[in-house]
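User: Let's play a game. I give you a shape written as tokens, and you guess the letters that built it. Ready? Here's round one.
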């Protein structure tokens, strides 16, 4: 009874809790999901309360009946947040992990709606991406041991309770408004469409569903963000109708478009295919090929794109920075509209990064590649997208290897990538370099570095040969970058460019990271019920296979087991050697987390079996099925050698190489092409990045050089054998069909004929245009006829007279060009032209415009006269020019005066700019219409361009020479004069040898003046010109004469010089001579030979010719001549020695001989002279030579020898062969004749210096110069009397003349202005200066010649400061003179006997008269009966004391004072008593 009561009480309690729960949920939510489950855990009830803000309030009841309320946005153990990132590590969305939970955990999932949509009717609450955390973490579960009876009873109670709950749930479902919800459904699905490029299309669909579905559009499974690209996409949603508008469709819009509809009930999708077709003619165009421009309705124009200043094929080296650029002209210009500029490498769009910088200035597109690597090599394309279409331009960029540190080592590998990344494992691949070095590559080292650090760790101890390596031992969740280095016998290469970062993580997590942003998610979230499997040993892995097998390693892969529980599993790998039954565990230390594993250190050639076991905390599971026997060795074979390469000429610096593909090759990486100059064994790579195509254009070759080529294939296993060498090919431009002629216009019309003109094609295909063919057709309204040929023989001019036409009939014409390669495509059809006679008077348009001699700043434009002259003949032409980018208003005249020639050289162009030209003809009636526009022409000198130069050979033949290094087959040199074909062959002879042509003047004369030009056919307009002027012809004729009649050139004409002993040397020097040159020595027409009198010498290496004579005699007067003969060249030089010139030379010769004799004994090297020192001392000095200790040296003055005891002997000094006599400060007493005598047994010599008259004056002048030079700049000083200007000198001599000038006028001496000298000071005193004394003062010191001037400008600030100081000093002097003072009369001490009368008088001075007072002991005395004070005549002050007493003793002072100052005359008065004095004496006695 008690037990049944307890059961009933429990049931009532449970029903009560259930009732409370239902009431609470009905109060908070009218729409919810109820999930009931059966579980081994005790029954628990959950209730969810109302959610506010972003938090979820959860009530949990435990067995104890306690209610715990939690408010938290996250579970206790927050799971990792996964963000989806692109390759640039930018967050592009998020990924929601797969959610798994028991029914006991999950109670509901609520979907959020747009903020402007509310679902109050069904109380639908937005709860996006929010999950109820696991209940197991929010409560405490108590486990009790129960008896079987209790367990059965509780099971029965649970069954009864569950039944009631199911009944209640069914009832609530019927009554719940959420029964109206249903999943999305497409009423109208989007349909596929096919449109033309440039059009706009819309995809429509109608979707039903409740709650209202969220719509998202995808292109090839990539979310379309219409808000981020409004210029391309517009997405609209109105009620249940949705649309996606794609604007200006292009080729890349071809894709599968999917629309996804998602609500809380599920997600459904519908797919539509869009195909964008391109306007095309002939072969299908590629994605980067330009297309015809179409009309843009948005702007109402058709945009035309022109790409100029194009970048050429570029070459760079690793580590350098390379810029590519083009100028883009968009016409017409629309304000605020800019095209889209995209750069591609090998047809892959480039994104800006730290290695790639792009810039669009509005006119020029620039791509800058920072720090080049071989990965940057490839075909670069600039694509310019406009609303009317797009245009492209492409050129190849080659990247050379950086210089290696050690000769012979390989270059760096390239293109390092990461694959198959897992939690602790990644496969690194790379491409082999083009250059292996001095020996084959032995293998590669792989380095890794964790992102955020700078530490590189080597992954393999021994080099791997295979270009693929599994890296293990990574830390889960960390990012790594990798690099590779190659090794050969010479050493290790530079490391490659680092790979992109890779994260070590589970592939499923990586897939969720890579998924694009959802809306909010792109699939149906499934909730799977999983029983608790804690403590369950995992099952066995499946599908264990060997994915890679090389000599170095074997890679295993498998699938995780189906039974693995909630916790992750790890793996053990086991191996078994073939023929044994023993299994060895490979990774004994640590199980691996990834379902991949690389095994190293296996014996090559042996067979192994492998299997895998799973493990977790519960233990190790069963082993998987064995892989079977696997033999260790390379599964991938080396590629076979490519087929024979064929080299075909392409341009002057490139060759097209094609070859047969390698057969039966697996995983081909590409091909490397190498070239070698014929005759050498040096092979150079043509590409540093492997190419997969079997055709490649090799650039950067030398023009005119023979090359052979070979190819080798490469895959991960290594290099193939090189292919056979190709046939040798000379690098020259290939010949192709010419381009289309342009500008077919009507030049003249009559009743039955029309004259047509056109412009030659811009590209002649590498060969000259040999002619043209004209086609015509008739036009009647909108009906056109078939094309018919008009001429069966090629036309040689760019005009044609179409005859036998019908009057008033409309025709159209087209033209084809022909060269030696064939006939081009037809030009665009002309406008519809009516055949009727013209009546206009002005001439037609000139035709045949073309250019020659294109240079950086000039170009020569040529044309032909118009076919129709008008009423009168053509008498001149006007050339117009404009830059290609300028509009129609940019045309300007190339010259002012009419040009009567049919050519013109245009100068002053901007280098690198493009120009267009047109010509107008003129007759007497006026100026006609302009010709068709020629151009654009790029003002740029082609590399390697040479000019015509003039040469004069040894025979005097004058010729013009032009060289061309870009000759092709069939090229010829065509010479013309004044740009007209030369018909008179008598004037020039043309000689051509290879790439050099010489035009020889047969008989140069004034008839040959003019402009000679030379053009090379079958080239891209290579030409040059030379203008022969009258002055130039005269110069060439002079040179020719010199060559015909050569003269031996002399560097110096014959000269003569005296040598010691009076010997005479005649000499000359020729500029050049041969060893056969002979010299003939002639005197007065008589050939002289070597003997006693004459000595000859000819040094042919230096060209110096000499003849020596010991002395000159009277008979040697005459003409000396050297005659030279060197082959047919002759030379003569002479020297005439006659009359006074000969006699003077003879005297010099005799003097030199006497001097030689003199110098054999003691002699004067320098004779006695004088110098003045800086201290103004006068020295007489001389230098002596060849003296001995016994040589006597005697000084004398006025023929009186200076003895050793004379006073003047102290002035004599000898030092280092120099004798000096120090006169000191010179005076007239020092005048006289000084003489020095040298004498010994070898001879004597004497030197005399006259210090009188002129000699004395010369010394004084030198003294004056030193004094004048030592003078300082003029300074100014002020005194009480005026201003003094002065300059200091080192020494002053009374004979020195010094003059002063004021304002360049000499100052006359006066009482006010005086000049003089005080010591070494030269001064000018200006007493009482006034304004008139301002100005420039000049002191002129005589220096023996012109004088030295010192200038001082006494004006401005200098005058103000000096005058102010003068006034101050003057005032101070006046004050000093006139101040009051005691001038005398007072003694210092007065001793007086007591009782006597004291009378003292002091003399005073002052102007004005001073005030006087007497002081005693610093107290003023007043005149009274005792002291009588008097001041008489303003000069005498007296004091009288009638009877003095001892009290009168003290210090007295007479004080005088006026406005200039005060002074006191002090004295002491001592009064004594005689009696007292006697007493004192007696006491002393």
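Assistant: Ready! My guess for every position:
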């Amino acid at each position: 009874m008690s037990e049944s009561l307890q059961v009933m009480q429990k049931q009532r309690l449970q029903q009560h809790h259930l009732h409370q729960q239902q009431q609470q949920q009905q109060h908070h939510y009218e729409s919810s999901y109820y999930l009931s489950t059966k579980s081994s855990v005790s029954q628990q009830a959950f209730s969810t309360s109302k959610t506010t803000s972003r938090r979820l309030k959860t009530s949990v009841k435990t067995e104890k009946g306690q209610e715990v309320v939690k408010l938290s946005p996250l579970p206790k153990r927050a799971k990792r947040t996964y963000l989806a990132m692109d390759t640039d590590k930018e967050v592009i969305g998020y990924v929601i992990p797969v959610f798994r939970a028991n029914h006991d955990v999950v109670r509901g999932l609520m979907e959020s709606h747009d903020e402007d949509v509310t679902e109050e009717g069904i109380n639908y609450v937005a709860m996006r991406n929010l999950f109820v955390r696991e209940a197991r973490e929010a409560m405490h579960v108590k486990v009790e041991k129960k008896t079987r009876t209790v367990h059965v009873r509780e099971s029965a109670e649970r069954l009864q309770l569950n039944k009631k709950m199911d009944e209640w749930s069914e009832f609530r479902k019927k009554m719940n408004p959420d029964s109206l919800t249903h999943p999305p459904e497409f009423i109208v699905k989007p349909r596929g469409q096919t449109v033309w490029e440039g059009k706009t299309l819309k995809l429509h669909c109608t979707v039903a569903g409740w709650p209202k579905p969220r719509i998202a559009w995808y292109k090839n499974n990539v979310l379309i963000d219409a808000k981020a690209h409004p210029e391309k996409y517009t997405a609209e949603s109105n009620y249940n109708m949705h649309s996606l508008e794609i604007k200006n469709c292009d080729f890349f819009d071809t894709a599968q478009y999917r629309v996804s509809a998602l609500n809380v009930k599920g997600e459904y999708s519908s797919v539509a295919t869009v195909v964008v077709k391109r306007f095309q003619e002939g072969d299908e165009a590629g994605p980067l090929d330009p297309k015809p421009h179409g009309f843009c309705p948005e702007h109402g124009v058709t945009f035309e794109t022109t790409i100029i200043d194009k970048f050429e094929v570029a070459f760079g080296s690793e580590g350098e920075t390379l810029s590519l650029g083009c100028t883009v002209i968009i016409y017409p210009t629309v304000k605020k509209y800019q095209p889209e500029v995209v750069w591609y490498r090998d047809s892959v769009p480039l994104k800006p990064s730290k290695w790639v910088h792009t810039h669009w200035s509005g006119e020029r597109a620039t791509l800058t590649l920072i720090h080049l690597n071989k990965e940057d090599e490839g075909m670069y394309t600039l694509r310019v997208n406009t609303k009317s279409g797009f245009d492209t331009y492409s050129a190849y960029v080659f990247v050379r290897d950086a210089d290696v540190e050690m000769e012979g080592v390989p270059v760096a590998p390239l293109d390092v990538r990461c694959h198959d990344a897992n939690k602790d494992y990644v496969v690194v691949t790379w491409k082999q370099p083009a250059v292996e070095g001095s020996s084959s590559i032995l293998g590669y080292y792989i380095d890794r570095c964790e992102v955020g650090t700078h530490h590189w760790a080597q992954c393999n101890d021994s080099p791997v040969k295979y270009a693929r390596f599994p890296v293990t031992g990574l830390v889960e969740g960390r990012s790594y970058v990798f690099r590779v280095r190659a090794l050969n016998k010479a050493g290790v290469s530079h490391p490659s460019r680092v790979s992109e970062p890779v994260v070590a993580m589970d592939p499923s997590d990586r897939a969720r990271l890579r998924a694009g942003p959802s809306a909010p998610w792109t699939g149906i979230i499934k909730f799977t019920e999983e029983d608790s499997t804690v403590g369950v040993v995992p099952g066995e892995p499946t599908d264990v296979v060997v994915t890679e097998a090389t000599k170095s390693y074997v890679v295993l892969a498998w699938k995780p087991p189906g039974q693995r529980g909630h916790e992750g599993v790890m793996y053990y790998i086991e191996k078994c050697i073939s023929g044994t039954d023993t299994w060895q565990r490979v990774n004994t230390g640590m199980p691996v987390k990834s379902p991949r594993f690389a095994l190293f250190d296996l014996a090559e050639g042996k067979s192994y079996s492998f299997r895998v076991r799973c493990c977790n905390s519960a233990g190790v599971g069963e082993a998987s099925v064995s892989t079977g026997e696997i033999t260790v060795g390379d599964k991938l074979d080396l590629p076979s050698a490519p087929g024979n390469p064929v080299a075909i000429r392409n341009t002057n610096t490139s060759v097209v190489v094609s070859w047969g593909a390698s057969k039966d090759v697996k995983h081909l990486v590409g091909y490397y092409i190498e070239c070698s100059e014929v005759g050498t064994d040096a092979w150079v790579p043509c590409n540093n990045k492997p190419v997969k195509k079997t055709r490649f254009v090799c650039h950067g070759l030398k023009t005119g050089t023979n090359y052979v080529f070979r190819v080798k294939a490469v895959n991960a296993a290594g290099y193939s054998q090189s292919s056979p060498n190709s046939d040798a090919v000379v690098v020259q431009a290939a010949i192709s069909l010419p381009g289309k002629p342009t500008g077919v216009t009507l030049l003249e019309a009559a009743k039955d004929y029309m004259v047509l003109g056109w412009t030659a094609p811009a590209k002649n295909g590498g060969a000259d245009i040999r002619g043209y063919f004209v086609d015509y057709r008739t036009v009647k309204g909108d009906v056109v006829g078939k094309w018919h040929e008009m001429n069966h023989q090629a036309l040689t001019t760019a005009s044609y007279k179409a005859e036998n036409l019908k009057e008033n009939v409309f025709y159209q014409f087209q033209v084809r060009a022909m060269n030696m390669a064939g006939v081009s495509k037809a030009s665009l059809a002309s406008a519809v032209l009516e055949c009727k006679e013209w009546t206009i008077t002005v001439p037609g348009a000139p035709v045949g415009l073309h250019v020659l001699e294109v240079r950086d700043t000039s170009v020569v434009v040529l044309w032909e006269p118009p076919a129709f002259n008008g009423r009168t003949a053509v008498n001149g032409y006007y050339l117009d020019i404009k830059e290609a980018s300028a509009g129609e208003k940019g045309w300007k005249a190339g010259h002012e005066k009419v040009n009567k020639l049919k050519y013109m050289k245009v100068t002053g162009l901007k280098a690198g700019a493009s120009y267009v030209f047109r010509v107008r003809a003129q007759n007497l009636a006026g100026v006609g219409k302009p010709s068709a526009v020629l151009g654009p022409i790029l003002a740029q000198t082609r590399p390697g361009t040479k000019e015509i130069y003039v040469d004069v050979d040894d025979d005097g033949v004058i010729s013009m020479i032009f060289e061309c290094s870009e000759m092709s087959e069939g090229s010829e040199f065509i010479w013309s004069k004044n740009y007209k074909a030369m018909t008179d062959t008598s004037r020039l002879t043309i000689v051509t040898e290879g790439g050099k042509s010489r035009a020889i003047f047969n008989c140069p004369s004034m008839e040959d003046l003019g402009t000679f030009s030379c053009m090379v056919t079958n080239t891209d307009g290579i030409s040059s010109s030379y203008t022969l002027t009258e002055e130039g012809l005269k110069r060439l004729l002079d040179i020719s004469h010199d060559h015909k009649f050569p003269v031996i050139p002399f560097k110096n004409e014959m000269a003569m010089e005296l040598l010691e002993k009076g010997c005479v040397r005649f000499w000359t020097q020729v500029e050049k001579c041969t060893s056969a040159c002979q010299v003939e020595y002639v005197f007065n027409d008589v050939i002289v030979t070597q003997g006693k009198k004459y000595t000859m010498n000819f040094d042919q290496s230096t060209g110096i010719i000499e003849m020596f004579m010991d002395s000159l005699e009277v008979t040697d007067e005459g003409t000396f001549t050297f005659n030279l003969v060197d082959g047919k060249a002759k030379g003569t030089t002479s020297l005439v020695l006659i009359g006074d010139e000969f006699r003077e030379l003879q005297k010099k010769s005799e003097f030199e001989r006497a001097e030689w004799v003199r110098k054999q004994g003691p002699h004067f090297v320098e004779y006695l002279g004088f110098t003045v020192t800086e201290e103004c001392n006068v020295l007489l000095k001389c230098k002596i030579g060849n003296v001995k200790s016994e040589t006597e040296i005697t000084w004398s003055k006025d023929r009186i020898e200076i003895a050793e005891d004379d006073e003047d002997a102290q002035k004599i000094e000898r030092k280092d062969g120099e004798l000096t006599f120090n006169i000191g400060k010179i005076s007239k007493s020092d005048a006289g004749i000084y003489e020095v005598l040298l004498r010994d047994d070898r001879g004597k010599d004497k030197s005399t210096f006259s210090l009188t008259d002129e000699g004395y004056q010369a010394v004084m002048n030198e003294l004056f110069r030193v004094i004048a030079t030592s003078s300082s700049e003029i300074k100014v000083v002020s005194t009480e009397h005026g201003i003094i200007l002065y300059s200091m000198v080192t020494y002053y001599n009374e004979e020195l003349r010094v003059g002063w000038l004021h304002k360049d006028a000499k100052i006359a001496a006066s009482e006010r202005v005086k000049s003089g000298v005080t010591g070494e000071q030269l001064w000018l005193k200006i007493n009482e200066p006034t304004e008139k004394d301002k100005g420039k003062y000049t002191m002129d010191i005589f220096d023996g010649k012109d004088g030295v001037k010192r200038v001082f400008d006494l004006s401005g600030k200098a005058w103000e400061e000096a005058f102010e100081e003068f006034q101050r000093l003057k005032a101070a002097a006046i004050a000093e003179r006139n101040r009051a003072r005691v001038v005398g009369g007072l003694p210092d001490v007065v001793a007086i006997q007591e009782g006597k009368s004291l009378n003292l008088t002091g003399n005073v001075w002052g102007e004005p008269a001073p005030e006087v007072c007497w002081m005693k002991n610093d107290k003023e005395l007043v005149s009274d009966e005792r002291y009588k004070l008097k001041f008489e005549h303003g000069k005498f002050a007296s004091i009288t004391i009638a009877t003095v007493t001892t009290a009168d003793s003290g210090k007295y002072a007479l004080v005088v004072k006026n406005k200039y100052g005060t002074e006191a005359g002090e004295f002491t008065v001592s009064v004594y008593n005689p009696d007292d004095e006697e007493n004192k004496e007696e006491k002393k006695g």
